[in-house]
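--- STAGE predict ---
source: upstream dedup step, 1 unique chain passed
mode: sequence only
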Amino acid sequence: MGTPSKLLETLKESYFKYYDTAFWLRDNQLMKERRALLEESGTLFAEPLIEPILQYPATDDLESILNHINYPLELGDKVARALFGMLGKSGSKISLRKHQAESVIHSFKPNNEPGRNVTVTSGTGSGKTESFLLPILLRIAREAISWNPQPSSALWWNNNLVKEFVPMRKNESRPAALRAMILYPTNALVEDQISRLRLAVRKINEILPDRPIWIGKYTGVTPGSTNVPKTGDRKIKDIASEVRKMDSDYQKLVDLQQSEENLSFFSNPRENELIVRWDMASTPPDILVTNYSMLNVIQMRHQEDEIFDSTKRWLAESAENIFTLVVDELHLYRGTTGSEVAMIVRNFLSRIGLNPNHPQLRIIATSASLGSGESSTQFLSEFFGANAESFFVTSGEPQEIPSDVSLTRSDIQSSVVSEEQLQKISIAIANACKK
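--- STAGE serialize ---
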């Protein structure tokens, strides 16, 4: 990966190449003078800041957690291995970080038990995303084993002469509804995070091949117009062509034997991801990934009513059906913006037949900067409208940093640094930051 200084030099050189190429000048002297100006501190770059990230050790045994929530051990183990990239690696036990374990345990509390809604406030790089993905995937996978085998998807777009839109899930017998919604503040975060969800769901669908879990990304860049076009409308052919291009690009990557991790950055229209708005509006995915702005928009249009209505019907079918609402980066929703987003969330819950204190609702929020005191609990209660006692805040347990480290000049100046020396340097930097 290289050192931070090497990374900085690589970034600088990339930017300089861009300027020299996009804004090329005939006069070489002028090019050199411009480069000198750009290299001055504070023009393009500032001095780098290095932030040590605390490690969060995995201390909680997965099997014990699954026993605690009365979850099928074999299925739970496979779901966790799919999420953590360990599917196919048998023999080794899985352990979770404390906040991940607590998120699972508290999310699976029954009915209206206190602490059923979780807020994870562990530090950067601590696995907060897995803290909400694991409870969601465990819950949906357990439901999935009760479904009948489902037919193949209707690939309506896979035809150059297509004239009619047909929902990809039109032949399924199990109810289409939102089981979970992950709400991000920006599209950039949606794009950054959805690859992890794709990878995990693809692996789980290998475990349950005839009972696929569906995901969907609904943002401003999602293909398809608001209204489902009528048969013969030019929009159908245009969107079908766009999806076929996605499919072709994905298959080329497969042919190039790209890793599963690399493939997770790309949508696979053939398998368990709804790509087009019309599909999601007709038969909602199990997990919807969106942002609060788009959520507000679709609540004001009748074209997406089926997203809410089908979810409401599914929840009414059984008290065992639980909807999970995830709000990422919760600390961003304060002041006027926070009030607006809080109303959007409450309106959404009303549309699917729930209220903030409903026993069929589970809330999971994440924030690296929210505290764990009474004021934070009050903020959670006011934002979501749920009782304060329904929230459980966990910050996890970062690894303790030894205070006594013997660092010598040779450790720093050595041309070849050993793992032991790197560990000592890391500890010394972390202790310096604490002061």
